[in-house]
Amino acid sequence: MSGIVIVGAGQAGASLAAKARMLGYSSSITLIGEEAIPPYQRPPLSKGYLLRDMDLERLFLRAPSFWKQQDVDLKLGAPVTAIDRTGKSVRSDGISIPYDQLVLATGSCPRSLPKKIGGELKSVYTIRTVADVNAMAAEFHPGRKLLIVGGGYIGLEAAAVGAKLGLDVTLIEMSPRILQRVAAFETSNFFRRLHIQNGVRILENTGLDRLTGDGRVSGAVLSDGTELTVDFVIVGIGISPRTLLAEEAGLTVENGIMTDAHGRTSDPSIWSAGECASFPAGGGQIRLECVGHAIDHAELVACNILGASSRYEPKPWFWSDQYDVKLQIAGLNTGYDRVVERWGEDRSGSIWYYRQSRLLALDAVNDPRAYLIGKRIIEAGQTIAPQFVSDPSTDIKALLSAATSVEPSVT
Amino acid sequence: MIKITYVEHNGREHVIDVPRGATVMEGARDNGIPGIEADCGGACSCATCHAYIDSNWVGKLPAKEAMEADMLDFAYEPDPSRSRLTCQIKVNEALEGLILHMPERQA
Q1: GO molecular function, one example (chain A) (predicted)?
Q2: Closest chain B C-alpha to A50 CA, distance in angstroms
């Protein structure tokens, strides 16, 4: 009984276990999670769950009984501390668990602020787990002063929840604009305006010098010298792949646990899937931080463990909910040199990213039709001439039939 | 518990007891019924929980909101009258006996 052992019971680990069973894998599957609760969705943590719109049970990826029905041995609250590659086993909770094929689906951990600038004061939080959100729930009272460090999606979603619940929210971003790392100027402008309209104070080009307080945080000194009074702080400054276990086991780590196009690490019996894994794309090793990737990558690895030999072709998509705005993103905008906008009525519209004539990605706000059309064009390896996109008189559905294959010179 | 019949594209039927307050999507997902993927977990963001409502039931469901209708426009083989995103349908007593059919695949 030493079948598939999966380290990490997040989206990737859970998808892999379910897929392997669906494909008819009949040996043992052990899914080991560090947290004490069954596999759950993380995206709502900074949205509906933080807003207390959603119960814990709603977060579960499957009903807890599903794992038993599928004969998946779910070990919870059991961090894995070491891998013995020679003996083919992992160590967890004081016991040794043998594997035939091992999968590392360890995900990421949020970056935190250094201790010397107050990162370890009480009431300074990050958002990654249910426990993180439960710990901060009692802080969300109308009128309290929330400082958010970092203007990425996590920070903006938390700001939206704070504003909705009547808190006094300030968000600081070190870069010249929020979402700078992930989106175009036009998208940043849209979300800045949205947050300001909802009463959030957005300070760009503004870093954090330090947090202050005696045991508990009570203030912040910003990079321009401004001093703020704060009741609590949420830090959203990015995540790092969890690679320690792989490194200690001597696996190759390069921007995440390095895998080949099949999801295999430098040890042929060990695979890696989801956020912690880097995979070959565009001449380098990239990582993706999104649910769609965690599912697709994990399912591909499940197929390959069972002998498929398929290569991974990422089809990334993302979403974010802030106030009454749904943002949907398809593709990856890395390397864009041109942006085309298409706006409709009622604050709905889309921002399309091109490199030369090739469509790379789009951000759609309250415009699911644009999102789905753009996604379809990108995933088909096609493009659409920018002048069709930007002309609001072009019927949105006509974009699909106007899509063309990408010229070889720009692929 | 409310009884809902999920019919796979190949005709296989699953009669499932779904708790009141859950969504039709969650009833399928929690019971491992193939055909509904629900990658976004029910956030009306991905259009992979599409199903066709049995004709007799179409008028008995709450109407679609604009977001759902727009997403459905680009589902795989949508049917303007019968297609729904199952994550947007909350289960209550009025749905006792609901029958729905899975598409050949999700978008």
Answers
A1: oxidoreductase activity, acting on NAD(P)H
A2: 15
Most confident option among A66-75, A399-408, B27-36:
A66-75
pLDDT digit string, tens, across residues A328-353: 999 999 999 999 999 987 789 999 99
* CATH number, span A4-109+239-305: 3.50.50.60
> Least CA distance to A290: which residue of chain B?
B40
DSSP string covering B2-61: EEEEEE-TTS-EEEEEE-TTSBHHHHHHHTT-TT---TTSSSS-S---EEEEPGGGGGGS
How far is the alpha carbon of A104 from chain B, nearest alpha carbon, in Å? 21
Q: Number of A to B CB contacts under 8 A, please give it.
A: 58
Contact A402, A384 (CB under 8 A): yes
Of B26, B42, B73, the CB nearest to A369: B73
Residues of A in contact with B30 (CB under 8 A): 62-63, 65-66
Same fold, A4-109+239-305 and A112-235: yes
Joined tokens for residue A203: 């300070």
Which CATH number covers residue B42?
A: 3.10.20.30
- The shortest C-alpha distance from A18 to chain B (Å) reads 9
Q: Are B88 and B45 in contact (CB under 8 A)?
A: no
The verdict on residue B106 lying in a domain is no
How many CA atoms are closer than 13 Å to the CA of B84, on its beta-carbon side?
A: 26
Specify the amino acid at residue A290. C
In a domain, B97, yes or no: yes
Fold of A324-410: Enolase-like; domain 1 (3.30.390)
Specify the fold of A112-235.
Answer: FAD/NAD(P)-binding domain (3.50.50)
- The parent domain of residue B8 ranges over 2-101
Q: Contacts of residue A368 in chain B, CB cutoff 8 Å?
A: 47, 67, 70-71, 74
For residue A70, what is the nearest residue in chain B, using CA coordinates?
A: B32
Domain count across chain B: 1
Residue A214 CA, distance from chain mean position: 33
Give contacts of B46 with chain A, Cβ < 8 Å: 292, 317, 319
What's the complex ipTM? 0.90
**Tens of pLDDT along A150-182?**
999 999 999 999 999 999 999 999 999 999 999
Domain assignments of chain A as residue spans, ordered by start: 4-109+239-305, 112-235, 324-410
